Amino acid sequence: MSHKYIQTNEKFSKKIPRHIAIIMDGNGRWAKKRGETRAFGHKAGFKAVKKTVKLAIQNKIEVLTLYTFSSENWKRPKLEVVSLLKLFLFALKNEVKNLNKYNICLKVIGNLTAFNKELQSYIYNAEKITLNNSGLILNIAANYGGKWDILEGVKKVVNAVQNGYLDINQIKETIFSQYLCTNGLLPVDLVIRTGGEKRISNFLLWQIAYSELYFTDVLWPDFNEFIFQDAINYFSTRERRFGKIIKD
Questions:
Q1: Which cofactors does this gene product need (predicted)?
Q2: Active-site residue set
Q3: Residue 2, marked binder
Q4: How far apart are CA 125 and CA 118, in angstroms?
């Protein structure tokens, strides 16, 4: 069941998450209910992405991270993987103008070397074109896995130590975070997962250690402004202590 926090008073409107990360789950089940293919569901999910980006801008969210393709998604049926990658390529080809129109800076995190050269080229080109945009940072996690991210960070740290760029005694959480894909981004304040499942699914494992978690049964293509606002209102009710005790 989803949370229901529909407060609209001033107390809650002031407390807005700066960085929202979303696990967009439910495209396949949404399509199945309608007797359609999973590819049809992913196309509907893409429309929900466009809507959510606009909602993030309207709510003055600074960073929006979307889990679009996990490192485990390669295990899905080949036709579904192909349709997902084609949809990603279509978005990169056709949405860059809109990204610039709305002053959005695009970043893509994950093991991009697994993608074909054409897709990699469009990713890097879209990032380059939107690099200087100063509005919403749209962070796309593609072929991304939290365990992979941490392991890659460990490799980079080991290499830095071996080459004398880093003293092993200097390594702290803040230092290690600089070797992860999300280096330079704000901490994740709120994680939203649609589709009814209540798990993290290998998403930003290091980065969401103290994030607030919001789960909703709504399937991703049906995600809308009411659910988005409910998630923000839920965040507004949370007392974020980060392990500390807050005195009255």
A1: Mg(2+)
A2: 25, 73
A3: no
A4: 11
Can you list the domains of the chain with their CATH numbers? Answer: 13-145+187-237 (3.40.1180.10)
Q: What is the pLDDT of residues 78-127, one digit of tens each?
A: 999 999 999 999 999 999 999 999 999 999 999 999 999 999 999 999 99
Is the backbone of residue 239 left (phi > 0), alpha (psi -120 to 50) or beta? beta
Span 31-86, pLDDT tens digits: 999 999 999 999 999 999 999 999 999 999 999 999 999 999 999 999 999 999 99
* Structure tokens given for 44: 């509907």
The answer to whether 201 is annotated as binding is: yes
The radius of gyration of the chain from alpha carbons, rounded to an integer in Å, stands at 19
Tell whether the torsion through CA atoms of 96, 100, 106 and 112 is positive or negative. positive
Q: Could you tell me the end-to-end alpha-carbon distance of the chain, in angstroms, rounded to an integer? A: 32
- Flag whether 241 is marked binding: no
Instruction: State the DSSP code for 187.
Output: P
Please state the φ and ψ torsions of residue 75, each to the nearest 5 degrees: -75, -10
199 annotated ligand-binding residue: yes
Residues 6 or more apart whose Cβ sits within 8 Å of residue 50: 95
Distance CA 86, CA 138 (A): 20
**Number of continuous H segments (helices) and E segments (strands) in the chain:** 9, 6
How far is residue 21's CA from residue 220's CA, in Å, rounded to a whole number?
14
Are 63 and 186 a contacting pair, CB within 8 Å?
A: yes
Is 243 among the annotated ligand-binding positions?
no
Beta strands in the chain (DSSP E): 19-23, 63-70, 105-109, 137-144, 190-193, 212-215
Rounded CA gap, 140 and 138, in Å? 6
